[in-house]
Amino acid sequence: MKKRVFVLTMILLLSLIATSTVSAGTSPKLPGWEQVFDPHYYLGEDVIAESGVEFKGKLYFKFEGETTGNQVWVTKNGKDWSFAWSANDIQAGYDGIYLLSVFKGQMYAVIGDWDEELPGLVVRSSDGRHWEEVVTFPLDGEMGDWMSGGFTSFQGWLYAGACGFSEDGMVCGLWRSISGDPNTWEHVAVFPGWNDIASFATFKGALYVSSLFVPGEEALSPAQVYRSLDGVNWEPVTLDGFGDEGNIATWSFGQKGSYLYLGLGNFNGGQIWRTKDGMHWQPVTQDGLVDPSNLAFGFVTYQNMLYAYSLNGDEGCRVYTSKDGLNYTPANEPGWGNIANQQVQTDNAWVIFKGALYMGASGWVAPAPGGVFRLGPPKGNN
Question: Global pTM?
């Protein structure tokens, strides 16, 4: 089981990029964010808040720490947290936890072995405490021994992505199950050359999947997106980063109104594209929202506003808000006040819990406080 390397690669290359920022003459009031969980005291420095879910009235977040490894913490009220479990609590010898998901009343998780001596396991729990193994990857011997890509649901099926190595090089695939039970999984997609799956979306009756990045012979190949109307037969949406070879990655999909949005990673500034029909796309921004240090974007729709959050190793993660999907306003202090908070992990590290928006911050430069931030009303408002 391997860690994502795209984020670190992009941040290390930031030093090679000349950046500029254009800001409005009058600064709007920024929404107030409260840090409701600081993992620094428990997990050490360089913390990644990789995945969160709401499950049976509780909020769960998975953290990866420099010294303490992978742990899941839980809260009932969003402020008081306690340790829930680690991968080793589920299966001896496992030290990695990947993504969390909920399907048909059960919580699913992926656990693995960072030393790649054990296969990736999909496990599930009906109470968040007791676990059963439901599938081991690879299923058919064609994939490597690590699990990635995460989960999504579509037309009543649970989909899981796995990535690894085949005889032809790196490859990602999708498996699905109508129940999630053992011995019910079928192989439904192969994406040659992909190193990881970045994001899923369901839009106007189709399932969309995008590549994190696609290694080429000498450089990263342009990002790819596919879609399926039945979850089995797939057609390409783009194989060339929407015509820009600098779009070497996708970050996440987002939806608001009649549009599907996609954030793309580009060293000259992250891009945002959107579509009404899923096949014809138009750019919203191609310069990181006038800040080339914003290298990629993810999305969440909250209280009828589209929030775009950036990967930014220069200033810290930026969050923007938009009512129409075209015009964006800053919605946080860069990095929530700390430059080391550089990102929100694709579309897995935000949760709307009891009516409030929670975002998990991650950093690669120690000391990175990371942790979980909750959105409140604009500063100065009562």
Answer: 0.90
User: Which residue in 275, 170, 187 sits closest to 231, CA to CA?
Assistant: 187
> What integer best gives the mean pLDDT of the chain?
85
Partner residues linked to 37 by β-bridges = 372
If you average pLDDT over residues 369-382, what whole number do you get? 70
Q: Where does residue 88 fall: left (phi above 0), alpha (psi -120 to 50 degrees), or beta otherwise?
A: alpha
- Total domains in the chain come to 1
In a domain, 234, yes or no: yes
Among residues 126, 136, 112, 188, the alpha carbon closest in space to that of 157 is found at 188
Residue 50 covered by a domain: yes
Distance CA 79, CA 139 (A): 40
Residue 365 CB neighbours (<10 A): 15
Of 368, 267, 381, 360, the closest CA to residue 36 belongs to: 360
Residue 21, pLDDT > 60, answer: no
Domain holding 10, by residue range, is 6-16+38-377
Is 301 part of a structural domain of the chain?
A: yes
Look at residue 303 and tell me whether its pLDDT is greater than 80: yes
Amino acid residing at 57: G
> Is 291 within the bounds of a domain?
yes
CATH number of the domain to which 205 belongs: 2.130.10.10
Q: Is 331 helix (H, G, I), strand (E, B) or coil?
A: coil
Residue 143 has pLDDT above 70, yes or no: no
Is residue 102 within a helix (H) or strand (E), and if so which, with residue range? Answer: strand 96-103
pLDDT at position 166 over 90:
no
For residue 183, give the 3-state DSSP assignment: coil
Report helix, strand or coil for 42: helix
* Residue 47 CB-density burial (10 A; 0-12 exposed, 13-18 middle, 19+ buried): buried
Tell me how far apart the alpha carbons of residues 317 and 315 are, in angstroms, rounded to a whole number: 7
How far is 65 from 313, CA to CA, in rounded Å?
Answer: 19
Which two structure tokens, joined as six digits, stand for 236?
């390409």
